[in-house]
Structures are given as C-alpha cells and as structure tokens.
Amino acid sequence: MFHLTPEHLEFRDLARKYFGEKAAIDPLAEPAEAGAIRRWWRRADEELGLGGSFLSEEAGGLGLDFGFAAVLLEEAGRILLDAPLLPVVVASQALRGVDPVAAGQVLRPGAAVGVALGGTDWMTAPTPRVDRSGAAPAVTGDLGLVLHGQSLDVVLIPAVDAGGEAGVYAVETADPGYLAVPVTGVDLRREAARVRLEAAPAVRVPGPGDAAPHLRRVGEVAAIALALEQVGAGQAALEMAVDYARTRVQFGRPIGSFQAIKHRCAEMLIDVERARSAAYHAVGQVVADADLAEPAALAQATASEALDRIAYENVQVHGGVGFTWEHPAHLYARRATSTRALLGGPETHRDRLVTALRQA
Asked: Residue 31 contacts by C-beta under 8 Å, 6 or more apart in sequence?
C-alpha cells in the first residue's frame, strides 16, 4: 500500500480547508451551470494550482507525484466537488511523457484540460474518426456522455485515422464543431453533457510509445482516480452516519448504542477501509510507473461496491430524515449510483481483473 508522506498530508489538509470554505454542500441547491463551474475552477486553479500541479515540470507543471493527486481526489469526493478535477487529473497523467512542445499546444494558464470520461471507453478501440487530410486534423464522432463536457475548456479524446492508427487528440470545447447538450442526470453535483464532434479541429497529442498501451493506461488511471473519489465520498457518508448515531436519541438512548446500528456502522467502516487499501495500492503502482491492469480493476470494483453499500446504509441509519432532500444523504446515494455505472461497473472491472491475473 502507498504510504502518504508529511507533505501529502499537509496538502490534504490544505485542500480540505479550501474545499470546506469554497465548495460546501447545499442539499437543496440547483445543479450548477457550466459557466459558474468554469469560473470556480479558474479561481481555484489560481489559488491552489489545481490545473498544473500534476503535470511534469517539462510541460510547465509542478511535477507533483500521483500521491498528491490522490489526496486531492479523496477530499473532492468527501464534499462531492462539482468541478472538473477528475478529468483534469487524468489528463495530467495522459500528458506525462508527451513531448513538452506537443503538450504546450493544448495547455494554457487557467484552462481546464481534461479527458473525456463517461461515454468514452479508453480501454477499447476508439470510435471517433479523425481526418488528417487537411491543414489540421478534424475529428468526427459521438462521445456520448462526457463529465464536465461544458465546463472543460479542452477535452482530450481517443480517435483513429483512416489508416487505423489510434491516438489522443485535443479539441476546444468553444469550437462550433464541438456540439454539447447539457444533461441533468441522477447526480446533481456533477455537470455532464452529451457531446458529438462534427469535423472539430483538433491537435494530436503524441503519446510515449505505442498508442494502444498509452490509451489503455489512461483508462486505468481514470479507474483509479474515480476510486479515490469514491473512497472520499464513502468516508464522508460513514462519518455522517456515525455522527447522527451518536446524537440521535430514541427510547432514552443514543441510537448508536443499539446493536443493529453498531453493526451497520462497523460494516461501513470495513467497506471504506477495504476500498481505501485497494485504491492506495493502485496509487503506489502509478507512482512506481508499474503495470496498472490488476490494481486499477481491483480498486474500481472494490470502491464502487463499497460506496454503493455505504451510501445506502447512511440513508438507513438516518431513518426518515435520510430520505428527504433537506439532508445531504441523498446526494451521496446519487453519487454512488452514478459512479458505479460510469466506467463500466464493478462486474466489468472484475472481468478485467480476472483477465489480468490469467495473463500475469
């Protein structure tokens, strides 16, 4: 398991304080519109350096290791941060090892550059087609659901040219060929859009080595990053349930003294610690630049199921108030439902884990 250093912990505390002050949960708030999210991100990027912290120094970033990204993602998960941190962190890993000049073509100060997550499967052959016959590549294809499809400034996507060569391409979301329709889904704390590209001008981002392993690694990093968010959300839901069990009195006693509630909370703790162990083992593999097939699949399958159970039990511990929209418990249940399906679901990742173990 990856062990956090004092520097990681200090960064985590800074992020927790910042998010608590600038992005607190309002259970009755309407979903934020893309423009507001983009403005929040630019301010946070200026104050915390969220965009460039995890890029290599050669690409103009701080070169922080993935452990710093891990604690940031976990803290974002705790408060269900409605900002494009997840796709931006994955993009920073997708740009590692890329020629600095090529990376500089898609990066600019304050811009949110993120990978397409949701309807795009980085693990399989890409479906968007790129036409490289003109002065600049042009990408056409249906990306399906894209997390923060309107609040990102630049989206990195996998695409294949007429010769069958796959690669990563950067598309500006402000371009007329980038067609995004906002979607209000089950998760009210995550902006998303259905996106189609119609001959959208693109910049190719050449990855290190062969394209297929590079694209697959982007997908594996995405699975790990999402697992870290899920761990944070699970931890917050657990703490919410425990705090309520300590203070809610029934029959003259705190309900946390009843065996049924004790067992629920204990099982929630086991779930979140199991998920955290799997997620941070995967973080260590990212930092070590090791193969991610097994740890990514294990982390995502474990964290998805854990958050699903924890969010459900949190509602149950709260009783009637847990079913109301005035209480934030429903937001964690929504996040659990949406993230479980986001990258293929636990069943898909178990299948990938079995395949990886057989090939080991």
From this structure: 82, 184, 188, 189, 191
CA distance 304 to 311: 11
| Tokens at 42, concatenated | 């630019």
For residues 334 and 310, give the distance between their C-alpha atoms in angstroms, rounded to a whole number: 12
Q: From CA 297, how far away is CA 274, in angstroms rounded?
A: 14
Cβ-proximal residues to 43 (8 Å cutoff; 6+ apart), any chain: none
pLDDT in tens, 52-69: 778 777 766 778 899 999
The answer to whether residues 246 and 254 touch, using CB atoms and an 8 Å cutoff, is yes
* Region label for 66, one of left (φ > 0), alpha (ψ between -120 and 50) or beta (otherwise): alpha
Whole-number Å distance between alpha carbons of 278 and 353: 13
Residue 155, amino acid? V
- What sign results for the dihedral spanned by CA atoms 80, 350, 239, 323? positive
Average pLDDT for the chain:
91
**pLDDT tens string 24-60:** 888 878 888 888 999 999 898 888 877 777 877 776 6
Categorize the per-residue pLDDT at 336 as very low, low, confident or very high, splitting at 50, 70 and 90. very high
Q: Which tokens is 4 given?
A: 């956090």
**In which residue are the tokens 């997550």 written?**
117
| Beta pairing class for 178-183 and 166-172 | unpaired
pLDDT digit string, tens, across residues 103-129: 777 877 778 999 999 988 898 878 899
147 bridge partner residues: 192
pTM: 0.95
Domains of the chain and CATH, by start: 212-359 (1.20.140.10)
